[in-house]
Design goal:
Largest sheet: 3 strands, mixed
Strand order of the largest sheet: 1-2-3
Structural class: alpha+beta
Order of helices and strands: HEHEEHHEEHH
CATH class: Alpha Beta
Protein name: CBS domain-containing protein
Distance between the termini: 36 Å
Pfam families: CBS (PF00571)
Organism: Pollutimonas nitritireducens
CATH superfamily: CBS-domain
Keywords: CBS domain
Shape: elongated
InterPro entries: CBS_dom, CBS_dom_sf, Diverse_CBS-Domain
Number of domains: 1
Number of helices: 6
CATH topology: CBS-domain
């Protein structure tokens, strides 16, 4: 069964963070420049929230496209659903769908290990299915024929 730790290993360990007191405009610039959909919000070495394009879009809509002097703290999700490295991919899928979460922090106790995105999940599932497909094809190709089985 595919685990979150395996997905993180393939994904790599690049992680983008921000602080709660960062101006929204600066967070938006970081997300745009890095072509990412979320930032992990850290304070004093602890996860305190997530900022995704969803919160930014909602803020821009409510403020007529103006970020003003607002900080990340005012719009971040301060209670993001997280998973552990041992969580199964099936459970992550279920949680993402149930909570409408496109990004989930991966926590090993108090330590942030990374972030799993909906895209990461899709990529991992496609890769696992391709591997399984290849294994089944190899198994079928090596299947003994009736004449081979009779001669043994």
């Amino acid at each position: 069964m595919l685990k979150v730790s395996e997905i993180l290993r393939v994904k790599g360990d690049t992680l983008y963070t921000a602080t709660p007191d960062m101006p929204i405009l600066q967070a938006l610039e970081t997300m745009s420049e890095q072509d990412i959909g979320s930032l992990v919000i850290m304070e004093h070495g602890q996860l305190v929230g997530m900022l995704t394009f969803r919160e930014i879009i909602r803020h821009l809509h409510d403020n007529h496209g103006n970020t003003g002097t607002h900080t990340v703290r005012s719009i971040m999700d301060d209670a993001p659903v997280s998973v552990s490295p041992n969580t199964s991919a099936d459970e992550v899928q279920r949680l993402m769908l149930e909570k409408h979460a496109r990004y989930m922090p991966v926590m090993d106790g108090p330590i942030l290990m990374g972030v799993i995105s909906f895209y990461d999940m899709a990529q991992a599932i496609v890769a696992a299915q391709a591997f399984e497909n290849n294994m089944l094809k190899a198994y079928i190709r090596d299947w003994p024929s009736d004449s081979e089985a009779a001669s043994q």
